[in-house]
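2024-03-11 09:14:02 INFO worker-7 job=invfold-0412 stage=load source=structure_tokens
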């Protein structure tokens, strides 16, 4: 039969850190210590496992314990305490089939309760503390897993990473493509500066502007559904022919928004929550809450016309809700889509 590693250590075929030796027993330091003090007390007689201990070995096995106590005293761990472990066969975690007893000490090893027994026998140095940490870690990981799963299935899912939206400002040129050739009073100077070719605003046009804008006033919703509420086609008389720009999303100012509202063929979307929408919204808007837009894609696709500019607003500021809606529409080839960044906050302050 092939010799075990301990037999080869006993015969000095293999070196080891020997701490004690007599004619019957040898004590070596464990090559992979699981505690500050980790010794192996090995009888020289070949006894593969505890199961093989015979009548004539009883005294020898008793001697292992006496030597263990002596070694504990020698290493200064006797008073604090230590652990003796003898593994047996596969389930016991035995790897060297030559009877030996582990002497472990030099740190608190914890109690041998049900959860620590496994660790104490297979990896003797694991204390109750590390067991508890392990249990807590498992619990936290399971909780995180459940949270991720729940979030993934939830239509109101929280985005783990704040999405980066395309935030490109529209130019007056972008707007001019879709509106009749008029300018609101506040955009006039800006337009003239950027686009000398634009006709100066006339008094008549200015009056038309004011009138048209007044049709898009803030309103309090009564009992309208989103689709019913969307009027979407109230361009002023001569809105230019619509040229689709699939996937184009631009952010717009109040003045641009007003120009598009009054002079373009458009579909207006309020991306705020249904509650906020019910409290008040821009006349003619349909409500598609940006936080739940993924669950309303079929609804969106059947209601939002493809031959109109899409205007979206929410509370204003970062406009994440509007961008969520815009992103979905963009994926389905809609465009141009204009996001009014002033949103409801600016709209209501300007319309007072
Ligand atoms: P067991 O798993 O209970 O059979 O324990 C065997 C122990 O022997 C392990 O803790 C090993 O780290 C240790 N061991 C294996 N080879 C050597 C070696 N050459 N010198 C010292 N300890 C060893």
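2024-03-11 09:14:09 INFO worker-7 stage=emit residues=352
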């Amino acid at each position: 039969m092939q010799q075990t590693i301990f037999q080869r250590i006993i015969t000095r075929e293999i070196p080891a850190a020997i701490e004690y030796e007599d004619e019957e027993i040898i004590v070596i330091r464990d090559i992979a210590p699981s505690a500050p003090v980790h010794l192996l007390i090995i009888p020289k007689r070949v006894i593969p496992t505890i199961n093989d201990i015979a009548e004539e070995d009883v005294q020898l096995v008793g001697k292992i314990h006496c030597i263990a106590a002596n070694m504990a005293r020698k290493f200064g761990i006797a008073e604090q305490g230590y652990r003796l472990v003898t593994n047996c066969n596969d389930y016991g975690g035995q790897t060297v089939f030559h009877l030996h007893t582990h002497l472990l000490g030099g740190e608190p090893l914890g109690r041998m309760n049900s959860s620590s027994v496994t660790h104490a026998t297979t990896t003797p140095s694991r204390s109750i503390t590390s067991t508890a940490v392990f249990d807590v870690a498992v619990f936290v990981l399971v909780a995180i897993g459940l949270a991720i799963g729940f979030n993934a299935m939830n239509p109101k899912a929280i985005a783990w990473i704040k999405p980066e939206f395309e935030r490109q400002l529209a130019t007056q040129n972008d707007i001019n493509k879709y509106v009749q050739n008029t300018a609101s009073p506040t955009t006039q100077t800006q337009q003239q500066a950027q686009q000398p070719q634009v006709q100066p605003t006339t008094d008549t046009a200015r009056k038309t502007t004011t009138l048209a804008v007044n049709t898009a006033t803030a309103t309090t919703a009564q009992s309208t559904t989103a689709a019913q509420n969307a009027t979407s086609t109230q361009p002023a008389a001569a809105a230019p022919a619509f040229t689709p720009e699939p996937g184009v999303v631009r952010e717009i100012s109040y003045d641009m928004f007003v120009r598009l509202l009054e002079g373009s063929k458009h579909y207006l979307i309020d991306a705020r929550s249904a509650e906020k929408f019910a409290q008040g919204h821009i006349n003619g808007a349909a409500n598609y809450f940006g936080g739940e837009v993924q669950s309303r894609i079929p609804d969106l696709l059947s209601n939002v016309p493809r031959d109109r500019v899409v205007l979206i607003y929410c509370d204003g500021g970062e406009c994440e809700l509007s961008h969520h809606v815009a992103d979905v529409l963009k994926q389905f080839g809609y465009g141009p889509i204009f996001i009014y960044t002033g949103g409801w906050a600016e709209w209501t302050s300007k319309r007072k």
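2024-03-11 09:14:09 INFO worker-7 stage=report msg="The chain has three domains: 5-105, 131-159, 172-179+240-350."
2024-03-11 09:14:10 INFO worker-7 job finished
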